Amino acid sequence: MTLMTGPERRRRWSADEQREILMAAFSPGAVVSDVARQYEVATSLIYKWRREVLAARDEGGFVPAVVVDGGADVGPAASLGPAIVVDLPRGARVTISADTPAALVTATLRALR
Q1: In 3D, which of 78, 76, 59 has the Cα closest to residue 68?
Q2: Cβ atoms of residues 50 and 26 within 8 Å
């Protein structure tokens, strides 16, 4: 339990603490209310932080890319030549072959975002 004394009644969370809580709350199999109790933070605050992170990301930021050895089969598009595989949140996966029109790729990724 944290006892707050003095004029400041709100707890301040550093960016690192917020990131740690968000990673714990939205990791596979996690329950947000359980994580909120563990860190003694309101669930609404966790969702607010999540909205802020997603809004900042949607403002044209970059996301980390992971390069995977091409030995793994990525589906039927693999035989058409080089491809990009995009793993989206909630388990969605998009495989983009080299001959896919840019407009179709853009429309697909926007629809799945």
Answers
A1: 78
A2: yes
The count of residues in the chain is 113
Q: What residue type is 61 in one-letter code? A: G
Distance CA 11, CA 2 (A): 9
pLDDT at 104 over 90: no
Q: Hey, what are 8's tokens?
A: 């400041």
| pTM of this structure | 0.48
Helices (H) and strands (E) in the chain, counts: 4, 2
Whole-angstrom distance, CA of residue 98 vs CA of residue 109: 16
Q: Give the number of C-alpha atoms closer than 13 A to the C-alpha of residue 78, restricted to the C-beta side.
A: 9
